[in-house]
Amino acid sequence: MPQMQVKTQVAKVLNKTTPGLQIWRIEDMEMVPFPSKAYGQFYEGDSYVVLYTNKMRSSFTYDLHYWLGKATSHDEQGAAAIYTTMMDEHLGGMAVQHREAQGYESDTFRGYFKKGIIYKSGGVASGMKQVETNIYNIRRLLHVKGRKNVVAGEVDMSWSSFNKGDVFLLDLGNLIIQWNGPKSNRMERLKGMTLAKDIRDRERGGRAQVSVVEGDDEKSSEEAMKLMKQHLGETRRDIRDSIASDDVVDQKLRSSVKLFHISDAQGNLVVQEVAVKPLSQDLLNHESDPSRSTLEQLLEHGRLRTIVHRLDVGGVG
């Protein structure tokens, strides 16, 4: 997409004086407003741009995030990065930019969604362009994780997806069954219930029932367990203990550093991944068209650092 067209679209959709959240999804390489009733729901096959505006007396502060689903395309990732950069430019360079990867979001990002984040299968490419409500022909198992800021992702409809340290929601459309792992704590269970009720209210119009099964006392929930076995099979005795803690996952993320090259040398903005950690200075490309600008983006610790420069024949000018 030509750079001028990108700038025009950003200027058209961006409201920089309204406090709170604004979310856009990348659809056919364009930034399309996401319905506010679906905030907190992210399709794994898509990329999003999220702006949080905070009013400080007579001025504003901005946090810009681009969120990448685990199955999003490279083109959509590139478009999200480009729109984020152009949006920051439109905001006068005042925004703090963040890169958010599915499952590894920053606390700042997760904190926007008080009732939790839900990862949904599919995306624009698979026809998921509309956020539907009051749909009951649903069969999915959600793995709920996190004590402070909750996220839930769809996993295989099988007991092999369970572990004893987390909370799981079996969503059957008109009934949502919350299974509490024996080693899950009170806060995780409360957060799981908040999320279950949010699904009931936002996706089912308040007309679904919510039931709870305690993993260490399944016999006390006979009817709910009967339904769980009907959809998941007989209970397995070898359910795993707790999986890696959030701290371990975060540490793994912090060891990940990538370098991307963004260029408009052909008249269109193009994003390419150059390398992963370790990185060196000689990875920077000095052979682009000197009449064009180039952006080198270093993604470090889950955050985005952008270096804008103009290339000269002899190097960086």
TrEMBL record:
Residues 30-110, 149-215 form the Gelsolin-like domain. The keyword ATP-binding does not apply. Keywords: Actin-binding, Calcium, Cytoplasm, Repeat. GO terms for cellular component: actin cytoskeleton; cytoplasm; lamellipodium. It comes from the Eukaryota. The keyword DNA repair does not apply. One of its GO terms (biological process) is regulation of lamellipodium morphogenesis. GO terms for molecular function: actin filament binding; phosphatidylinositol-4,5-bisphosphate binding. It is found in: Cytoplasm. InterPro entries: ADF-H/Gelsolin-like_dom_sf (IPR029006), Gelsolin-like_dom (IPR007123), Gelsolin-like_dom_sf (IPR036180), Villin/Gelsolin (IPR007122). This is Villin-1-like. It comes from Salvelinus namaycush.
